[in-house]
Amino acid sequence: MRYSFRGAIAQNSDAFPGGGFCLAANKGYFAFLDSLVASSRQSNKDLAVFVLTYTLAPGAAYPTQLTQAVSALRYILKQTRRKPSQVVIGGDSAGGNMVMGVLSHLAHVHPAIPELKITEPLLGAIGIAPWTLMGQDHSKREIYHGGDLVTPAVDLLWSTAFLAGAAQDYFTSVSDAPKSWFEKFPVRQVLICGGGSEIMLPVIEDLAEKLQVTIALTRSLTREREGHVAPVYNIYVGDRTETQQGKKIKAWLRDVL
């Protein structure tokens, strides 16, 4: 487990990269994170991005990655002496799963992970195409599968490696949780993004709806013809055209910082 900072040391974003818990962060992540820092700086908002390098499956299984994500937040709050009201946690796909897992731990305490007590809510949380329901066929609705990476077969492969025989629970699959689970999430504002071509779009929309019921300052955005984690993946494959999701995330950060 490694930590790294990118950007000025001021308001802080704790980033959990996705990749199905099986793939390491690619260059698209760091290019996109750098663009968030630059965008914030242009608006005279200071942003530092703290990136967690967590242990990948199948080398380690649940709850290792969630334990490391909680440890990263603990490090930021304890070692860098930031207040929770200065911290935004964010992630895409599996990283979005960890965002919801960390909020779940703060509210309900995972039995295998040391408790992390905070004195005030986190400033915010961002989920880009959060993968919060595992091993499911999300393709009941007619969706253009050419715009997505996470087919049911890929979902099953990655989730099996991540769980390694462990039962799913609300920390791994928060989409299964009742709305009451979200009521104690200690966070002021939430942004959930998804692409119109996502196979998991119904799950993402359902999660956003549950959050909107319990956390008043929850915003969601779906953009047609954008695929899974488009702000990151598009850069990775060489397309530097800014996505609508990327624009929304930058605007949201400028508002909350």
UniProtKB/TrEMBL annotation:
Gene3D superfamilies recorded: alpha/beta hydrolase
Family matches, as InterPro entries: AB_hydrolase_3, AB_hydrolase_fold, GDXG_lipolytic_enzyme
UniProt keyword Zinc present: no
Claim: Transcription regulation is one of the keywords in the record: no
Gene Ontology molecular functions: hydrolase activity
Keyword terms of this UniProt record: Hydrolase
Origin superkingdom: Eukaryota
Alpha/beta hydrolase fold-3 domain sequence ranges: 18-215
PANTHER family: AB HYDROLASE SUPERFAMILY PROTEIN C4A8.06C, LIPASE_THIOESTERASE FAMILY PROTEIN (AFU_ORTHOLOGUE AFUA_8G02590)
Protein name, per record: Alpha/beta hydrolase fold-3 domain-containing protein
Species name: Ustilaginoidea virens (Rice false smut fungus)
Organismal lineage: Eukaryota, Fungi, Dikarya, Ascomycota, Pezizomycotina
